[in-house]
Amino acid sequence: MTKLNTYLANLAVLNIKIHNLHWNIVGSQFVSVHEFLESEYDKAGERLDEVAELIRMSGEFPVANLKEYLEISTIKEIETSKEVSIKEALEIVLSDIKLQKELALEIRKEADEADNFPVANAMEDHIEDYNKQIWFVESSRK
């Protein structure tokens, strides 16, 4: 469950990080990117609860405090609030989505090997969505 708790911590940090970008982006595509970022932090929040419940169903305890989230997360928070260009915001989100996808792939593989179908299925759903978001962001950056 170590990787699943890392994934959970990443979701928590990502949720706040995307809020920061959502509030502070500037640029000619503001409205569309602002709305995209809102949908992304909503997803991170929903997944946070989903993953915590998967950890509990496995008899373990999810990490549930900010200090531990920051200690074990592989996604780094944005240190300072400031204006962020559309291009920079999309690069940050793309990098973090790719990182989450890779971790989800590792977790899915381990869950498959352990016949932990609820975790494997959840990660499969997340991976599918990450693929779509990577395509969306990469297409938006052209």
TrEMBL record:
It holds the Pfam family Ferritin. InterPro entries: DPS_DNA-bd, DPS_DNA-bd_CS, Ferritin-like, Ferritin-like_SF, Ferritin_DPS_dom. GO terms for molecular function: ferric iron binding; oxidoreductase activity, acting on metal ions. Residues 3-139 form the Ferritin/DPS domain. Belongs to the Dps family. This is Antigen C1-5. The lineage of its organism: Bacteria, Bacillati, Bacillota, Tissierellia, Tissierellales. The gene is tpf1.
